[in-house]
From TrEMBL:
Domain Major facilitator superfamily (MFS) profile: 226-413
Subcellular locations according to the entry: Cell membrane
Pfam family, one: MFS_1
InterPro entries: MFS (IPR011701), MFS_dom (IPR020846), MFS_trans_sf (IPR036259), MFS_Transporters (IPR050171)
Transmembrane segment boundaries: 18-42, 54-75, 82-101, 107-129, 141-162, 168-187, 230-251, 263-281, 293-309, 315-334, 355-375, 381-401
Keyword flag Repeat: no
Source species of the chain: Nocardia fusca
Top-level lineage group: Bacteria
Keywords: Cell membrane, Membrane, Transmembrane, Transmembrane helix, Transport
UniProt name for this protein: MFS transporter
Mode of membrane association: Multi-pass membrane protein
Length: 413
């Protein structure tokens, strides 16, 4: 019996910094009402369709800028301090937003600035998670972190139902309180997180030049091939996220033709959340055995295929099967993208490129829903065929990008 127990694989043990960032991510997403209900909020103020479109575009554009700025500032000042500063600065913005729910112009300005600060969180958080002392595969620790993110996204609508869907003043005050709590918790753990950043840099120096201790001696020479692969991941991820965003536009418009389509869409969202929470981490232990480019390409293609099956489906059964496929693809490619950036880049580059990756996601979310609505409303069959083709092409580019020599996706502890 003792031998049998000894032979069992131990569950992964995640470092303190991963738990800290994951908990703060859950807290911030649980009260991230603006990100989920911005359209409803703007409509509640009586904006015209054109003004509503411009307001959403402004939020998407500032989100891209915030993502880039977060990555750059993290590379300059450290991920921990950028997370603390962004959370603190968001408190007064969210509080003032709660006071401006009846005045469109200030509300749009404040909301756009808040989106920028919220998006600045993504790159530094991903850099701390992917650069942690976890000894296993990077994709596994990213998948663990995403459990907390998905759980927070699941909690937020429940809180909205409890507070009231149109009580935005109270919702934004709660968001401000959550942002203050996030900043306070991060500040209380600042020494531990800063220490983790220093250890990540030290591990990289030791791996690059074990006999040298100076930063200059361990400097990484510029490698055009490696930089090209980093940008390939960023660009492909942006395209994949634009396709992914069809779950918020193309899918609800497509399932309207099915009996009780509104309830079906709600069921699909619940299925997606539960799938990610319960299955993404186990799936990551399997995809970790693949080279990053094959896992990334496979996940992107399966995501698009699942959306097309669901969008073209004419029954609950087909749509649910398609959305399960979509959820499977998401569970593969989203953590793999962040892990790939971490494994190709150096610790000094990681926050910056994680910021670019977050910006690509923001860009995809900014343009994807509008394109999806246009495509489904004009020619649904042709549109879903194009989604499959675009997903296949993006997945193929991801595979090709990793065929040259690269760093192993298995991290050295």
């Amino acid at each position: 019996m003792a031998v049998a127990l000894a032979g069992k694989r131990k569950p992964p043990s995640f470092p303190a910094e991963v738990w800290i960032i994951s908990i703060t991510t859950f807290l911030s997403r649980s009260v991230g009402f603006l990100a989920l209900f911005s359209t409803v909020f703007y409509k509640s103020m009586g904006l015209s369709p054109s003004a509503l479109t411009l307001a959403l575009f402004a939020g998407g554009f500032t989100g891209v800028l915030g993502s880039v700025a977060g990555g750059w500032f993290a590379a300059r000042f450290g991920s921990t301090d950028v997370l603390i500063a962004g959370s603190l600065l968001n408190v007064p913005l969210l509080y003032m937003l709660g006071m401006s729910t009846n005045d469109p112009v200030p509300a749009i300005v404040l909301a756009s600035l808040s989106v920028a600060l919220t998006q600045s969180f993504s790159g530094p958080a991903a850099a701390l998670v992917t650069g942690s002392a976890y000894a296993g595969n990077t994709v596994t620790v990213v998948a663990f972190h995403r459990i907390f993110l998905s759980s927070g996204v699941t909690v937020a609508p429940i809180m909205v139902s409890a507070v009231g869907e149109h009580n935005f003043s109270m919702l934004f005050f709660l968001s401000a309180l959550g942002s203050a709590g996030t900043a306070a918790f991060l500040f209380s753990e600042r020494a531990r997180l800063r220490g983790a950043e220093a250890l990540a840099a030290a591990r990289e120096r030791a791996a690059l030049a074990p006999d040298l201790v100076s930063d200059s001696a361990a400097a990484v020479p510029y490698d055009p091939s490696r930089v090209s692969r980093l940008w390939a991941v960023v660009v492909v991820f942006g395209i994949a996220m634009a396709v992914y965003a069809q779950s918020m536009s193309g899918i609800p418009l497509s399932v309207e033709k099915i009996s009780d389509g509104g309830r079906l869409y709600s069921v699909l969202l619940v299925i997606n959340s539960l799938f990610i929470i319960f299955f993404e981490l186990p799936i990551s232990t399997l995809t970790a055995r693949l080279k990053w480019n094959y896992a990334l390409g496979l996940g992107i293609f399966v995501t698009g295929l699942g959306l097309a099956v669901c969008g073209a489906g004419s029954s609950w059964t087909v749509c649910i099967i398609g959305f399960v496929l979509f959820s499977l693809g998401e569970a593969i490619f989203i953590p793999q993208a962040s892990a790939s950036i971490a494994d190709i880049s150096t610790p000094a580059e990681n926050p910056r490129y994680q910021g670019y990756l977050s910006a690509a996601q923001s860009f995809g979310f900014a343009v994807g829903p509008g394109l999806g609505a246009f495509g489904v409303l004009h020619d649904s069959a042709l549109y879903w065929t194009l989604v499959i083709q675009i997903s296949f092409a993006a997945g193929a580019v991801a595979v090709v990008a990793g065929m040259s020599k690269d760093r192993s996706s298995v991290r050295v502890g």
